[in-house]
Amino acid sequence: MFKNILRRLTILNSLVFLLIFIAFTTILYQYIDFRLFDKIDYAVQLQASSFRVPRGAPKPPPKPPDPRIFLLLQSTDGRIIHPGPAKIEEISNMEEFTLMTNPGEIQTKNYEGHIYRMVSIPYPDTDNSLNEVNGFLVQYVIAVSNVDAEVALLTNLLWITLGGGIIGTIAIIFAGYFLAKHAMVPIQAAWEKQQQFVSDASHELRSPITGIYTNAALMLKHPENNVEEESYRLHTIMKESMRMKNLISSLLTLARSDANKSDLHLELINISEVIENVLEHFKGVEELNGISLISDIQPHLTVIADKERLHQLSVILLDNALKYTQAGGQIHINCFESNKNVIVTVQDTGIGISPKNLPRIFDRFFRADKARSRDSGGTGLGLAIAKWIIEKHGGKINVESELGKGTTFTVSIPSHMNHKS
Ligand code: ADP
């Protein structure tokens, strides 16, 4: 699949480059062509229109601005003469040369291996004797310029462009391939990550389903048993169902976050109150586990946030602290304002995380101890969701931990005041 996309992207990239290259060289060629001939055309037109039959003592016509320009005069009976000053060596038959010359029109003529740019202009005084030179009645003045140099330059430019085009096309295909390959890296990584996610999710869902199925099948084997006798199996089915429910809801949250579909309901909220509420919920659990929960929450701290998501975040961090702290341990929750940010820390004296695992704990489905996490109802998705929530709120989450000593999570969210400024 990726090979196919890579091929298509390479073709597309190369085509775009090629079109830009062709457009650029065409414009350049046309511009040079125009600049070269525009000057010559102007000069020949000027030269032809400013010619007047000499009066009095014969004198040569004014020197043309470009020495390559010469004049030819055409009489009313079709004869051609060159008024001087020098002879034109390169044109053997002037009548033949001026054949098919359309008056007023700039023309390019290829004659005896040379290329000329020329214009023929009607002589303004055809109706009186001012147009006569030695019995030659001037009807048209033809100004001609040899443009061999310009044409040679343009031909060279064309060859260079063509050569450059061939080399450029090869380079463009390579560049297109390289760019396509480069663009594919994050796509491929995202695809592989997604594949991994789906495979992990299926794997995780299989175990509670197996648990439910096995226990239900065992119950069916003893239809004579009453509810009390099957209470252990019923309890397991309920536990596995609950695990599946949690897993599915976490998967849904992450899938929506990936698709950028989970919009936050942002409002001004009292984060101190949210944390106090969560602590209330955990009151019974800490006593049950023999862990002391110590909190220091600065009141009335406000942030612009989604209340539900902040609640979820606090639950994830506190739940983890309780899950991974042994009886007799302590959990400290602090909430205060610092540098226009609200800081929440959850510190425990639990099992800690090894330096090797520390960078991976925010990865989806990562669990340092799978069995332990599963036993305590963990899915390996809590911290991935926590990280997503924080980032969506423009905040940061940090973790410090020492194996066997404990872990501290520090969350920082821009405070309401910071939002305003
Ligand atoms: P889980 O559902 O397994 O708790 P999480 O994403 O919340 O999934 O956490 C990922 C892993 O990070 C856990 O399995 C655990 O190994 C480690 N972890 C998270 N919080 C703590 C903590 N407070 N103390 C020790 N380890 C922790």
- Give the overall silhouette: rod-shaped
Largest sheet: 6 strands, antiparallel
Radius of gyration: 45 Å
The arrangement of helices and strands along the chain is HEEHEEEEHHEHEEHEEHHEEH
Write a structural description:
This protein has about 425 residues and is of the alpha+beta class. The chain has 9 helices and 13 strands. It has helices at about 1-50, 95-100, 150-220, 230-260, 270-290, 305-325, 370-375, 380-390, 415-420, and strands spanning about 70-75, 80, 105-110, 115-120, 130-135, 135-145, 265-270, 290-295, 300-305, 330-340, 340-350, 395-400, 405-415. The strands form 3 sheets. Strands 1, 2, 3, 4, 5 and 6 form a 6-stranded antiparallel sheet that branches. A hairpin with a 2-residue loop joins strand 10 (about 330-340) and strand 11. Helix 3 packs antiparallel against helix 4 and helix 4 runs parallel beside helix 8 (about 380-390). The mean pLDDT is about 85. The site of adenosine-5'-diphosphate (ADP) has 23 residues, from helix 6 and helix 8.
Please specify the SSE layout and strand pairing.
Elements lengths: L1 H48 L19 E7 L4 E2 L12 H5 L8 E5 L2 E9 L9 E2 L2 E11 L1 H74 L9 H28 L7 E5 H19 L2 E6 L4 E5 H17 L6 E9 L2 E8 L21 H6 L6 H11 L3 E7 L3 E9 L1 H5 L1
Parallel strand pairs: 8-10
Antiparallel strand pairs: 1-2, 1-6, 3-4, 4-6, 5-6, 7-9, 10-11, 11-13, 12-13
The chain binds adenosine-5'-diphosphate (ADP).
Name the descriptors.
single chain, 421 residues, six-stranded antiparallel beta sheet, five-stranded mixed beta sheet, 13 strands, rod-shaped, binds adenosine-5'-diphosphate
